[in-house]
Amino acid sequence: PIISSAQKVKASHKLKAQTSKIVSSFKNPTMACTMQRQYAGHKDGIWEVTVGRTGQPIIATASADHTARVMAMESGKCLLQYIGHSGSVNSVRFHPTIDLALTASGDCSAHIWQAAVNWDIPKRQSSSEDLSIDRTPTNASGLNDDQEEPPTLRTPVRELLGHTGVVMAADWLPGAEQLVTASWDRTANLYDAETGEIIHTLCGHDQELTHVATHHAQKLCVTSSRDSTFRLWDFREPIHSVSVFQGHT
Fold first, then answer.
1. What is the mean predicted confidence (pLDDT) over 29-41?
2. CB under 8 Å to 112, separation ≥6 — which residues?
3. For residue range 82-120, what is the model confidence (pLDDT) as tens digits?
4. Those residues with Cβ within 8 angstroms of residue 62's Cβ, 6 or more apart along the chain or in another chain
5. 45 and 149 share a domain?
6. Do 242 and 145 reside in the same domain of the chain?
7. Which domain holds residue 233?
8. The whole model's pTM is what?
9. How far apart are CA 199 and CA 95, in angstroms?
10. Where is the composition biased (Polar residues) (predicted)?
11. CA gap 131, 53 in Å, rounded
12. Are 150 and 78 in contact (CB under 8 A)?
């Protein structure tokens, strides 16, 4: 059948209209963003920020100044400072159900520490071996000299050892009975969170590991590496399996 010019033009306009709708659906909506709050106090770069579990309006920061901080989300007040590491704190994760935090560090270790906070911090508090006041100034970023000084925690609940290189990240597996670390020694370690013992060392990457992230509901984790690959590790069966993904150059 012969298609008239009018039909062709109509079809062309219809196609353009449909294409226009598709393109417009990918455009970002117009919005205005403003900074609501600044969280200051660290004396060096901040590598990671994480939020507390539901019902806990807190955030935690991991910094190259060898500390991790727990801060009130609304006020920006530092509620707790962890100074148990002797190297850069590279990552921080809250326990999913109780007041614990997990940090990874340049000192080749990961720490589990008590992240219970006091919302009514007094101006002065007596020091002890584990919970004390950090007397160093916290106004490196222009904070008020009269700001309340946060409690400082020095001793972890559990120290996770075994890596021979910088530990870049650590994350809880679902249920938080186990956790995984990623290190510059080219391995990831699966730990028993209660005992601190290594259950399994995950080998295979050809260069330093840069990150690890776990699935929120399944015993799965992904590690990334400078070898241009990332690996999916499956811990759901007694014999652990791994899938290798490559694409980056």
1. 88
2. 100, 101, 102, 156, 157, 158, 160, 193
3. 999 999 999 999 999 999 999 999 999 999 999 998 877
4. 46, 47, 48, 49, 68, 89, 90, 91, 92, 103, 104
5. yes
6. no
7. 164-249
8. 0.78
9. 19
10. 128-144
11. 23
12. yes
Helix (H) and strand (E) counts in the chain = 1, 18
Cα distances (angstroms) measured from residue 208 to each of 167, 235, 244: 10, 22, 15
Q: Check if the beta carbon of residue 210 is closer than 8 Å to that of residue 229.
A: no
Window from 20-34, 115-129, 170-184, 196-210 with minimum mean pLDDT: 115-129
Beta bridge partners of 100: 114
Q: Name the domain count of the chain.
A: 2
CB 186 within 8 A of CB 206: yes
Shared-domain flag, residues 89 and 178: no
Residue 203 lies in a domain: yes
pLDDT, one tens digit per residue, over 140-156 is: 333 444 456 789 999 99
Reference 127, options 97, 150, 106, 146; nearest CA is: 150
- Strand residue runs (E) in the chain: 46-51, 58-63, 68-72, 78-82, 89-94, 100-105, 110-114, 131-133, 151-153, 158-160, 167-172, 178-183, 188-192, 198-202, 209-214, 220-225, 229-234, 241-246
Domain boundary among 161, 183, 208: 161
